[in-house]
Design a protein that fits this description.
The protein is an all-alpha fold. Helices cover about 60% and strands about 0% of the residues. Among the domains are: about 60 residues, no CATH class; about 90 residues, no CATH class. It is built from twelve helices and no strands.
C-alpha cells in the first residue's frame, strides 16, 4: 500500500467494513492517478484488489446486510450510550454553571463587604497598607477631640471624689488622677503629666512598615533558601533553655506609666481602659 496517512488510519482498526473500502478506493484514485489509461481503467494492482473487494461486497447486495448490522448496533447500543453521555455532560455543564453563578455571587458579596470595611476605615482599598498608615496621621486630632469631649465628666469626678472622702474620711486618696488631668489640661504628653512641664521636643514614634510588597509582587513561591537548619543535639547541654532560678528571675518588668516617655495621655488612658479587669 502507498504511504498515505488516511489509508494507514483506516487499516489500523480491527474491523474494516464496506464503507472503509470505498474510502480507500477514493484515496487510491488520487494516489494511483498516474496508472489510469485512456479507457479509464487503472493499471495499479492495488486499485484492482480493492475494486475486487468492493465488487464482492456488492455481489448479491451483501454490503446491505453489513450496513443493516451496523445500523442495528448503532440503534441498540451506540446511540443510547451517546445519549447517556450527553445527559451526563449536560448535567455536569448545569452544575458548572450553577457553581459559576454561586462564585459570582460570592465574589460580589466579598467585594461588597470589602468596600464596606474600607468605607468604615476611611480608605479607598487600592493600597491598603499605605492608606492605613496615612490614617495614623489623624490620630493626634482624634485624641485632642477625645480630651476636649471629657470636660462634661468633671462634675461626676468631683461627686465621686466627694463621696469617697465622705465614705473613707482621712483614708480617702485622690481618685482618677489621670482622668482629672486630661479633663483639665486636655491631651498632653505623659512627660508633661509626670513632671509638670512640657518636653523640649516631641519625636513621634517611627512607623516600620514596608510598602515594597504593594509595588512589586513577591510571587507565589516561597524561597526557603539552601541553608540547612541546625536544631542542635538533644544531648547537648548548650541547647537547653535557661529559665533562671528563684522568684526574681520569674518576675516580668511590665514598666510603669509614671516612667513613660512623650506619648499621648489619651492613648495611654484608652489602653488602660481596654485592658482593665473589674473584679
Amino acid at each position: 500500500m502507498p504511504a498515505h496517512d488516511d489509508i494507514a488510519a483506516l487499516l489500523s482498526g480491527s474491523y474494516i467494513n464496506y464503507f472503509h473500502c470505498l474510502k480507500i478506493i477514493e484515496i487510491l484514485k488520487e494516489t494511483e492517478a498516474d496508472t489510469k489509461n485512456l479507457f479509464g481503467r487503472y493499471g495499479s494492482q492495488r486499485m484492482k484488489d480493492w475494486q475486487d473487494v468492493v465488487k464482492s461486497y456488492e455481489k448479491e447486495n451483501l454490503y446491505l446486510a453489513e450496513a443493516a448490522q451496523m445500523l442495528v448496533r448503532n440503534i441498540s447500543y451506540e446511540i443510547p450510550g451517546l445519549k447517556k453521555q450527553i445527559a451526563k455532560e449536560e448535567q455536569m455543564q448545569a452544575e458548572c454553571e450553577k457553581k459559576h453563578t454561586d462564585y459570582l455571587k460570592n465574589e460580589a458579596l466579598c467585594k461588597s463587604e470589602f468596600l464596606n470595611q474600607c468605607k468604615q476605615l476611611g480608605i479607598q482599598g487600592e493600597k491598603i497598607k499605605r492608606e492605613l498608615v496615612d490614617r495614623l496621621q489623624e490620630l493626634p486630632d482624634i485624641y485632642d477631640k477625645i480630651g476636649k469631649s471629657l470636660k462634661p465628666l468633671l462634675p461626676g469626678i468631683e461627686l465621686y471624689a466627694a463621696f469617697t472622702k465622705y465614705a473613707l474620711g482621712d483614708r480617702a486618696t485622690e481618685v482618677l488622677p489621670l482622668l482629672q488631668y486630661i479633663v483639665e489640661h486636655g491631651n498632653t504628653t505623659v512627660y508633661e503629666w509626670s513632671y509638670g512641664e512640657p518636653p523640649l521636643s516631641v519625636e513621634p514614634d517611627p512607623i516600620h512598615i514596608e510598602f515594597d510588597d504593594e509595588e512589586h509582587a513577591a510571587g507565589d513561591k516561597i524561597d526557603f533558601g539552601d541553608a540547612a537548619i541546625d536544631f542542635g543535639s538533644i544531648d547537648d547541654a548548650a541547647g537547653q533553655i535557661d529559665f533562671g532560678d528563684g522568684e526574681a528571675a520569674a518576675e516580668i518588668d511590665w514598666g510603669n506609666i509614671d516612667n513613660a516617655g512623650a506619648g499621648d495621655l489619651v492613648s495611654s488612658l484608652i489602653y488602660m481602659i481596654q485592658n482593665a479587669k473589674i473584679f
